[in-house]
Design goal:
The protein is an all-alpha fold. The chain contains 2 helices and no strands.
């Protein structure tokens, strides 16, 4: 059986860092949106509309 070599190139490392930075925004953004909208039902509607837009691509 052949052994796989573990290696990361610069592009791989950069992609991981960018992915972590973008991915962490999901935890920060909802609070900012809720603070701007003020009412829980508006936040829910914005969440639903965002999901629909994401599905439409």
């Amino acid at each position: 059986m052949t052994e796989l070599r573990k290696s990361l190139r610069l592009v791989d490392g950069l992609a991981m860092v960018v992915g972590m930075m973008v991915g962490s925004g999901i935890f920060r953004t909802p609070g900012l949106v809720a603070a701007q909208l003020g009412r829980p039902w508006l936040t829910f509607i914005a969440w639903i509309l965002g999901g629909v837009l994401a599905l439409l691509g």
